[in-house]
Amino acid sequence: ASTADTCLHLCMQALASQLMLGAVVGLTTRTDAAYQPRDGLEPGEAYSTLDARTVKVQGQDIQLIKVTPPG
To answer: Sign of torsion, CA 41 1 63 65?
Structure first.
């Protein structure tokens, strides 16, 4: 299984068990190459995870994780 598959599976297990689950954006600065402002995620911010699931879009499985913004 890929890292993304493992991450989604762990999120789904935690949420099904009603465990509190969070995530932190692992970028250290806005100048990091991976940072894209359109993503809506801020470097170094903590987010609460609300839901995780796989959905089919045009026959392909798409993995989604729903998070709440900080503050």
So the answer is: negative
The first and second tokens of residue 42, run together, are 């801020």
For the chain, the distance separating the N- and C-terminal CA atoms, rounded to the nearest angstrom, is: 34
Tokens of 57: 């879009």
Residue 21 identity: L
Q: Cβ–Cβ contacts within 10 Å for residue 11, how many? A: 20
pLDDT for the residue 58: 92
> By three-state DSSP, how is residue 45 classified?
coil
CA 62/CA 5 separation, integer angstroms? 10
Q: Tens of pLDDT along 42-63?
A: 777 788 888 888 899 999 988 8
pTM score above 0.70? no
